[in-house]
Design goal:
The protein is of the alpha+beta class and 314 residues long. The chain folds into 4 domains: 89 residues, Chitinase A, domain 3 (Roll); 53 residues, Thrombin, subunit H (Beta Barrel); 66 residues, 2-Layer Sandwich (Alpha-Beta Plaits); 33 residues. Helix content is 35%, strand content 24%. It contains 8 helices and 14 strands. The strands form 4 sheets. Strands 1, 2, 3, 4 and 11 form a 5-stranded antiparallel sheet that branches. Strands 5-10-9-8 form a 4-stranded antiparallel sheet. A 3-stranded mixed sheet has the order 12-13-14, with helices on one face. A hairpin with a 2-residue loop joins β9 and β10. α5 runs antiparallel to α7. The longest helix is centred in the C-terminal third of the chain and has 32 residues. It is globular. The relative contact order is 0.11.
Amino acid sequence: MAKAKKDGGEKADAKAEAKAEETKRESASSPGAEGNDGTAGTISSGDIVYLDFDAFSVGNGDLIDTTHREKAEAAGMYDPDGRYGPRAIIAGKGEPVPGLDEDIQKAEVGKERTVEVSPAKAYGERNGKLVEIHPKNELLRLPEYRRDGHYNEPEVGDKVTIRGRTGYVTTVTGGRVRIDFNKPLAGRTMRYVYTVTKKATTAEDRVRAVIDLHYGSSDDFSVEMHGEKEARIQLTDKAKIDPAWQDKKLRMVADLRSLGGLTKFQFVEEYVKREVSAAVAEAVAAAEGATLAKHDHEHDHKHEHADHAHPAPS
């Protein structure tokens, strides 16, 4: 009888502890768990966070990726079309690589951490079977090597896609080409020095974070929230004419529901007729008048020249 009471008490204690842990997790991931600026607190799976990081190859110490523009410039890897600054990710999704993602869930917002990630939890182990020899003639039939009706010779470093697989040319010998279909960073141990700078906590934060995830930047998007569950999102001029927008929007819709917590939202395209000032209109009219006068002068000059060249018969 005493044993039964003891077992029942232990089960009750276990349930209470489980309930407390669940409450703790919910509290940690709720919008009010940190300050409204998202600059404090721990990270849980499913949180949208912003990450500043430098990624190095442990073998040679090379900088592989960074969110810091000045470091990219110093390393000679600056991309003028790239976006620098904290990068939005979803904790628990295995990004940027699974090993880093696991460590992020042990991090605290605002505190720098360093972690080494094995190849298996970074970009995978190298697989010798993915290094293949292909006839050069096979490559010459690819779109990459046919430009303006001419064939271009394969060169070391070329990126090629064959039957849906992407690889890089490593050697070209006579009529044969060696292609490595491993990921470029396969087999490397990586070291990440990173800081979770912010966690998306408010409703608008989460909406903007989803846009950042899929479109790169939400800076020029206008986001108008109606409570916690509804939003009006006005597109940028760039997005309105971007052919890639439709595809990105479809993925964004799913995440705005699941990650943003929205039940209703609108994407709005707004077109405003630009009013031209009187000064600009006057300048345009003057320019058009000058062009017309020049045309008339040239026309008269041509006729005068024709009259001299062909005098009327006497």
